[in-house]
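Q: Structure tokens for this one, please.
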Amino acid sequence: MRASRRRFSTQAGAGARGWRRILLAGLWLLLIALPQAAAAATVSVVQIQGAIGPGTAAYVSRAIERAGAAGRELVILEMDTPGGLDQSMRQIIKAILASPVPVAAYVAPSGARAASAGTYILYASHVAAMAPGTNLGAATPVQIGGSPPPAAAPPQPAGSAAPGRDERAPADASTRKQINDAVAYLRGLAQMRGRNVEWAERAVRESVSLPAAEALAMGVIDLVAADRAALLKQLHGREVDARGVRRALQTEGAQQVQDEPDWRARLLSVITDPSVALILMMIGVYGLFFEFSNPGWGVPGVLGGICLLLALYALQLLPVNYAGIALILLGLAFMIAEAFSPSFGIVGIGGVVAFTVGAVILMDTEAPGFGIPLPLIVALGATSLLVIAGIGAMAARARRRPVVTGDQALSGALARVLPDEPAGQWALIEGERWRIESDVPLAPGQRVRVVERRGLVLRVAPVDGASPPGLEERTS
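A: Here is the predicted structure, written as tokens:
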């Protein structure tokens, strides 16, 4: 009886220990799996709003790098852009192609667009998606250099065209090079992602556009989603190839992390606005001018130096016309020269004209969002003209004022004769003792007027009666 009880208790203890081992093993596996599940369920959201420039390129590139370092499941580029600079667009595409984390370009919200550079970014992404009511396309590169594209040739009679010649091709060699380069670039991206290659070429050569539904039907994009939640739900389980690694996305119910631009990207976005760069250049030049003309203030020189360096840094990132920069600097130099040596306004007005023309031709691109508004240029020119007019008016008033220093200031000044001294007679003029001479005898305390100065001696004459109107005695 006792033996059977011992066997039962031994078996019960072994069973309990077995269950404890199983429970501990399950808890251990759960603890290991939870962090991995949490990490796999996080996606980064990067918003591209407005024209694509150096600031946008820096922001998107760093955001993709941070997503790769954090091991995010996906990066969503939420776009609404009219296009931008070619160099900035290519920097973003390079970051997408080198990313170990899949990138989904998503044109949203409804009413948004991915035109020009946005179309290239959409084609380069691992997943291309659009919200209903959005569009993409118009990917023809804009004219660089300021001259308009040549007019299209008149239609030729049937059979007269040379075989193999594209009648839609522009006649200008430079424009053909730009368009052929853009076509090859977009076709390569379309082939890499398995998207519609023929429409990609039409988007460049003919500037065609597509709404979301037609883009999906023609194989230009991969899916249409009403919002981010619907996008993540449709992407769940989808296989993508990110830098040679095939993986299935686990995005259903994923946590969304908004990736905001850091201070460097914000600063770059502000100063690379052509209007801001032009204003910074003006502040910089005028600040240095006021510092050099009034040494010792410090603030205008420091502020001017900082603004000028920021402007030059921003301009070297932008497609600028160096003739425009030269005209702007020449105009500012003329305006400063007018302040130092007034020339009846001729040099100053010439400076304003040179500045205005330089600002008009400053930007060497027609990319949307990178032009300088004409009203701003006119306002800056008018402000400079007012500054010149104000300096000229102050100079004219200063010339009409009476002289208060030197021999001219002493001539006609009133003095009071001091008591006689063995060395001769002296008078007190504006708190200073001067030796005086006169053709008539003078009594101590008598008022006299300075006639002229001879070295360190003043010739004076007695003042008879009251002082003339407006002439006050300047003695202490």
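A few notes: The longest strand covers residues 42-49. The radius of gyration is 40 Å.
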